Amino acid sequence: MKLLLTTICFYNLAPSILSFQPAANLRLARLSQEKDHRFGPDLSLRRSSNKEHDLEGDKIAPFSNLLPRLFRDVPAVIVASIVFLLSSIADPATIVWADEGITPQQSTLLQGSTKRAESSVLDEVWNLVDKYYIDRTFNGQDWREVKSKYVDAHRNVDNDQAMKLVTEMIQSLGDKYTRMLDTQAYAAIQKFDLIGVGVALMPNAQKEIIVGAPPIEGSPSARAGLLSGDFVTAVNGVPTSGRTAFDIIDQIAEAPDAKTVSFTIRRKDELTGEGTTFDVTMQRQNSLQIKDPVQYKLSEKRKDGTNVGYVRITEFNSRVNSKLQDALNDLKSQGANAFVLDLRSNTGGAFQSAVEISSLFFEDSVATYVVDSNNFELPFRTQKGKVSIDPQFPLVVWIDGLSASASEVLAGSLHDNCRAVTMGDKSFGKGLIQAVYGLKNGAGLVLTVARYVTPNGNDIQGVGITPDIAGSMPAPVLVPVLSSNTSKVDFQEIKKRLDPSFCVVPQEHTTKKTEAEVAGGQ
Q1: How many CB atoms lie within 10 A of CB 199?
Q2: Which of 114, 359, 458, 494 shows its CA 20 to 30 Å from the CA of 53?
Q3: What is the pTM of this model?
Q4: Helix (H) / strand (E) containing 338
Q5: Which pairs from 139-142 meet CB under 8 Å and 24+ separation?
Q6: Which helix (H) or strand (E) holds 498?
Q7: What is the DSSP letter of 133?
Q8: pLDDT at residue 88 tops 60
Q9: Residue 253 and residue 230: Cα distance in Å, rounded?
Q10: Reduced 3-state DSSP string for 383-446
């Protein structure tokens, strides 16, 4: 099964996938719950690439130094993307993906459609909730009694009945963010698929990379004939032996626009016990189906020499990082020396993208913390050597009541690290983290598992981010020409607010437990 981490606002969309590696005995799903703070000529907008796309989805940062401690008993899964914050105007929530271990032996169940395999969704979901759900009271229920009622009493039901029962079981938790995804909704999350071929990769007990679940029906990997339990011995000719899921995702991310990806597959013959090895090259879906989420222009050239670069991010899909880099580089080439980052009406997307983007503005500092039910804080840091914008260039982040999830992660990250001043209206306030698990029957489970806080330790959930400067916003983003009017931004004031004499970067938090304690399961 797959697990996904993201701060998301979701409607009927589903997330992308994150890779986790066994590490310290800290279970993401036990991450607890809910605590805010301080402080031109009008050119037509253009996309940050020459092509327009209809869907969404691009690159992933190396989180291998961050996530391993978090998921000791969650084997890595590389289903395409990573932690992401899905979006929808209705129910913002934070989501992450990963894969619970499906062994090659178990994978035989995935190939058939027996009643036993179909009804196993009840066992799967009950166990995932038992293991990872954030509320250990299960909404005041005895979870073992729930198992007797829904699981033990319905061992031989067909898939349709099992899905009705499991949906009812999940609804008993009384959590509006925890829900079931049918096969169509779960397949829809492939818009955030980093690999782009509809397959989930994960390490087995021997740390060999395998296909962890049946490929998405109709996807390139399904058409190529990949099976759950296949060993992936190389990706694009690079052996997977000794490498983590993070290494492979980073490798794929080096060429986010590549049209194909190749796997070397080793498949064990069930009759002879002998293995056969073959190569498959698959057409990636990303390059044609994922839209560019970045719009930008040089909005002003002021008499005092301030040249304002306006950038709007519509959502945090898998292409946002590379497309934002393109936009910033182009604006710099046009002489931009002050920037407005517009996150209004951006309800979320990929969690890791918010951290990646933070790396374009400041390096080697905490972008956000993921916090568990024991108040263990796992820092997500920005990378070194990725800064695209001169630290002396002032930056403003525009937010409003529909800025949620990943938007709030990014705004909080830039604000608390004294890299940007926030401006506009209070943000939505989505600080819980959900995980998305892929199930054996092709459906999915969205489960609340964690929360995140800003570098200053401020909870976003139910509170939002109060802007440093209220109001002073141009027209709504639905009116592109007027919405990008940056003339009311006083960049001299912005510089003063970002000066070290006014703004102090917080020290990194100490955790409630030492790493040794976490690794030992104490």
Answers
A1: 29
A2: 359
A3: 0.67
A4: strand 338-342
A5: 139/172, 139/173, 139/174, 139/175, 141/172, 141/173
A6: helix 491-498
A7: -
A8: no
A9: 23
A10: CCCCCCCCCCCCEEEEECCCCCCHHHHHHHHHHHCCCCEEEECCCCCCCEEEEEEECCCCCEEE
Cα gap 126→114, rounded to integer Å:
20
- The helix, strand and coil proportions of the chain, stated in percent and rounded to the nearest 5, come to 25, 25, 55
**Residue whose token pair is 């990646």:** 356
Element (H, E) at 50: none
Residue 333 neighbours by CB under 8 Å, 6+ apart: none
The closest of 229, 318, 226, 223 to 263, measured between CA atoms, is 226
- Please name the helix (run of DSSP H) or strand (run of DSSP E) that holds residue 519, with its range, or none: helix 515-519
Give the pairing type, strands 338-342 and 395-399: parallel
Q: For strand 2-10 and strand 91-99, is the pairing parallel, antiparallel, or unpaired?
A: antiparallel
Structure tokens at 176: 């509006």
Token output for 437: 């698990």
Q: How many CB atoms lie within 10 A of CB 483?
A: 20
The Cα–Cα gap between 345 and 324 comes to 17
What is the full DSSP assignment across 199-259? Answer: --EEE-TT--EEE-SPPPTTSHHHHTT--TT-EEEEETTEE-TT--HHHHHHHHHTSTT-S
| Adjacency order of strands within the sheet including 395-399 | 46-47, 294-301, 307-313, 338-342, 395-399, 421-424, 469-470
Q: Which amino acid type is present at position 244?
A: T
Task: Give the pLDDT mean for 443-469.
Answer: 92
Dist. CA 451–CA 359, nearest whole Å: 21
pLDDT band at 61 (very low <50, low <70, confident <90, very high): very low
Instruction: List CB contacts of 472: < 8 A, sequence separation 6 or more.
Output: 423, 424, 488, 489
Evaluate if residue 327 carries a pLDDT over 50.
yes
- The HSE-up count of residue 331 (CA atoms within 13 Å, CB side) is 35
Task: Classify residue 221 as left (phi > 0), alpha (psi -120 to 50) or beta.
Answer: alpha
Contact (CB, 8 A) for 351 and 77: no
Helix axes 115-132, 159-171, angle to 10 degrees: 20
- Residues 365-411: pLDDT tens digits? 999 998 876 667 889 999 899 999 999 999 999 999 999 999 999 99
What is the identity of the amino acid at 454? T
- The number of beta carbons lying within 10 Å of the beta carbon of residue 418 is 21
What single-letter DSSP state applies at residue 152?
A: I
- Residue 410 vs residues 7, 41, 189, 273, 407: alpha-carbon distances, Å: 11, 29, 22, 51, 5
Are residues 107 and 29 in contact, defined by beta-carbon separation less than 8 angstroms? no
The amino acid sitting at 256 is P
Least Cα distance to 301 among 47, 486, 44 occurs for 486
Q: Report whether 369 contacts 380 (CB < 8 A).
A: yes
Cα separation of 435 and 84, whole Å? 10
